[in-house]
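Below is how a single chain appears once it has passed through the pipeline. First comes the sequence as given, then the structure the pipeline wrote out for it. We keep one example in the README because the format questions we get most often are answered faster by looking than by reading.
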Amino acid sequence: LITDAGTPGISDPGEELVAMCQEAGITVTAVPGAAACITALTISGLSTRRFAFEAFLPTDKKERQAVLNELTEETRTMIVYEAPQLLLATLGDRRIRICRELTKKHETVFATTISAAVEYYKEQEPKGECVLVIEGKSRQEQIEEERQKWEEMSIQEHMDYYMDQGIQKKEAMKMVAKDRGVGKRDIYQA
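Resulting structure:
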């Protein structure tokens, strides 16, 4: 199985051909080549240390929404084969790289944010196959969201949350202070 673009066994019908060959007892080997997902990741300028490859999102609306909901909490860089305007509502305004026509003459990498990409594509119809490389949620974002969750309850409710679990008052105060990003003295005074 030979192609002039990418690796035909990654998120592609080539996967089915390989499975059929193996079932028939035909030896399968690979000559390393550029897979669109890895090529896009390596030229994106986003973190390559940890990444998640989602390929094409499901076409079933419920299944698609379930996958997108999972991705909202993803901290790894995400690689998705998808139209950028379909990700805005779910993933917020993260940094994104839209990679087109990889390893071909008209290869481009569009470095932007999801919202700017949506605006751009309202005017310009996307052409060619796109690989989206999306920044994962930062640890700081996670900490802020957690802190906001705690701040929605009163300090007393927060204390009760821990004390109801059998945690001593002094230890509960330390935990509440840590959750809220304040000193123990502030909790004690409250």
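The beta strands are 51-56, 77-81, 95-100, 108-113, 130-134.

See the next section for the split statistics.
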